[in-house]
Amino acid sequence: MTDIEVAGNAVPNSAITVTQVIYGLHALSIFIGVTSAITIVGAFVFGVPSIIAVILNYAYRHNVRGTFLESHFQWQIRTFWFALLWVLVGVMMFMTLIGIPLAWITCIAAGVWVIYRVARGWLTLQDRKPMVA
Asked: Whose CA, among 59, 67, 71, 90, lies 20 to 30 Å from 8?
């Protein structure tokens, strides 16, 4: 196994590959949301690829502690859980007649936000830089 030197720390190449796969799974969920009748954020939260991705995040999190990849794992995990929160807020608003338009706006905004988070994270990973909130 070869290591990559990033900012003075040795990062296993396999850990970078796992992080790439996780971003890819999230991107696949977004693609499914864009090309189907489901909302982007709905496909992201409830789609099998994103669920597998968040499981991988938790399973491999201990392997990236102390490296720049730790910030990417936190970024990915937070993106998933905050997207779920926004879906729940949208569902709560959808239950009222007055809140239906706001629910759609919330879901669309959350979908755009998820696309931004996955794209920004993946591009930052390509540059071998940590995520900065």
From this structure: 59
CA 27 to chain centre: 8
* Residue 103 and residue 94 in contact, taking contact as beta carbons nearer than 8 Å: yes
Closest CA to 114 of 68, 88, 81, 92: 81
Please indicate, yes or no, if residue 103 is contained in any of the structural domains.
yes
- Into how many domains does the chain fold? 1
Q: How far apart are CA 73 and CA 90, in angstroms?
A: 26
Closest CA to 30 of 132, 126, 100, 119: 119
Residue 133 is assigned to a structural domain of this protein: no
Find the domain containing 65 and state its range.
3-126
- Residue 66, classed as helix, strand or coil, is coil
What does the pLDDT look like over 70-104, one tens digit per residue?
999 999 999 999 999 999 998 898 888 888 889 89
Residue 132 belongs to a domain = no
| Rounded CA separation 30/81 (Å) | 15
What is the sign, positive or negative, of the torsion defined by CA atoms of 49, 51, 52, 57? positive
